[in-house]
Write a structure and sequence with these properties.
Helix content is 0%, strand content 52%. The model has no long low-confidence stretch (mean pLDDT 93). It has no helices and eleven strands.
């Protein structure tokens, strides 16, 4: 069974840091792009960051550039999202997702982890 399992969410004060983890299992994710998305209450889900599994090429939303860093550990089949200088506007459920090669959309999703930033 293909799975992406997020962890690392929690409550943090503004200006603080959190590191989210996304563990992939059940298949090989070689050549998959893995991404982080988030959805705040009453808002649509939005892209946060992504990384190619093998090449390390990264993309970021403008709202998190310079504050968030996506990375991966292939030996552990895990992708990370280091979040620094957190703001209350970063409060959301964060989801990990996988996009197959040549696919237009992310096809595999985790269950999400809550991040709450207090002011």
């Amino acid at each position: 069974q293909v799975q992406l399992v997020e962890s690392g969410g929690g409550l943090v004060q503004a200006g603080g840091s959190l590191r989210l983890s996304c563990a992939a299992s059940g298949r090989s994710f070689s050549n998959y792009r893995l991404g982080w998305f988030r959805q705040a209450p009453g808002k649509e889900r939005e892209f946060v960051a992504s990384i190619t599994w093998s090449g390390g090429s990264t993309l970021y939303a403008d709202s998190v550039k310079g504050r968030f860093t996506i990375s991966r550990d292939n030996a552990k089949n895990t992708v990370y999202l280091q979040m620094d200088s957190l703001e209350p506007e970063d409060t959301a459920v964060y989801y990990c997702a996988g996009r197959p090669p040549f696919a237009a959309r992310y096809a595999i999703w985790g269950q999400g982890t809550q991040v709450t930033v207090s002011s």
